[in-house]
Amino acid sequence: MSNSPVTPTPPPARPLRVLAAMSGGVDSAVAAARAAEAGHDVVGVHLALSKNPSSYRTGARGCCTVEDSRDARRAADAIGIPFYVWDMAEEFDRDVVRDFVSEYAAGRTPNPCLRCNEKIKFAAVLDRAVALGFDAVCTGHHARLLGGVLHRSVDTAKDQSYVLAVLRPDQLARAMFPLGDVTKDEVRREAARRGLAVADKPDSHDVCFIADGDTAGFLGRRLGSAPGPVVDASGEVVGRHDGAYAYTVGQRRGLNLGGGTVDRRYVLSIEPVSNTVRVGPAEALDVDEITAERPVWSGGPAPSEPVRCQVQLRAHGEVHPCTARLDGGLLRIRLDAPARGVAAGQAAVLYDEATGTAVLGSGTISATRSARAEPASSPAM
């Protein structure tokens, strides 16, 4: 990519009314600027997602502070677009925060960014935007839309197609991702050339509504102490825990199982009914069959036959060659080779085998099993 000054983009054939979601960070600011420069009628909006804004950031962690709102407003002023703040704290708490807590309480490992995109940015916000006469919602996500199909960003390190793969085709039809063709470093340089004060602002990290990054502590305050056993694959009690919700499949650190070889154990499953955390050797984590619920086929018509593709099983995780098929309301995935540490609650995102970048569809992992062993984390498919 070139480091030359920003070249004006030719105006679109038909300018759109675009609502630009502006978080107060550099990505959304440059995305809004690009949309405006392309000739669209752009209005910036900052989503106030916290009932107590000062509580959602510590250093570079989190988001949703008063500072973020002010940064978004200053960016909108620099771009020269109208700016508003929408209070969506109630929706965010209900659809993202409470969902996060209930999923952990049920022994699953959710991805709150995916849920926020699904329920807030491309459901509640898009619905409101369309009702107000807007044609599209623009965000700073690092992903591409090519012919209406979601693709990975050119910046593979920052690619966010995984957390967008829950979107339906009709939602993607009203989405704009102007940053999919540039790297994050180029975004920052462009922000500086445009005179945007957020050019060097640190990215937020981890779960945005857990400012200190202590997920176990956050869940403990919400769910309370719930002591229970940590059980070896042989059935022996090898430790105790204060809450099964503090663990996730594949976890090794923080098990506090004592010395010796028992330390070389990993979480194999979380059983909320019996409040048991089961641990065992790394090889017991291998799974080659995955069931995912709530499938979304965003890359075209739902297939009637099994499809050869690639699957990504966690954000920024590796991809696995597989065969996937729709089975009523479920997505069945068979991996060519076992994957390790696959957690229920995460998304299984399918990518086109030929391109490796086009999203075919997704589902929320509900069960896994090994063809050679007992289920690794959930009931058998």
Automatic annotation (TrEMBL):
Domain tRNA-specific 2-thiouridylase MnmA-like C-terminal: 288-365
Compartments reported by the entry: Cytoplasm
GO biological process, any: methylation
Reactions catalysed: S-sulfanyl-L-cysteinyl-[protein] + uridine(34) in tRNA + AH2 + ATP = 2-thiouridine(34) in tRNA + L-cysteinyl-[protein] + A + AMP + diphosphate + H(+)
Binding site for ATP: A21, M22, S23, G24, G25, V26, D27, S28, L47, G140
Any single Gene Ontology cellular-component annotation: cytoplasm
CDD domains, per database record: MnmA_TRMU-like
Stretch forming the signal peptide: none
Family: Belongs to the MnmA/TRMU family.
Function noted in UniProt: Catalyzes the 2-thiolation of uridine at the wobble position (U34) of tRNA, leading to the formation of s(2)U34.
The protein, known as: tRNA-specific 2-thiouridylase MnmA
Native source species: Allonocardiopsis opalescens
Gene: mnmA
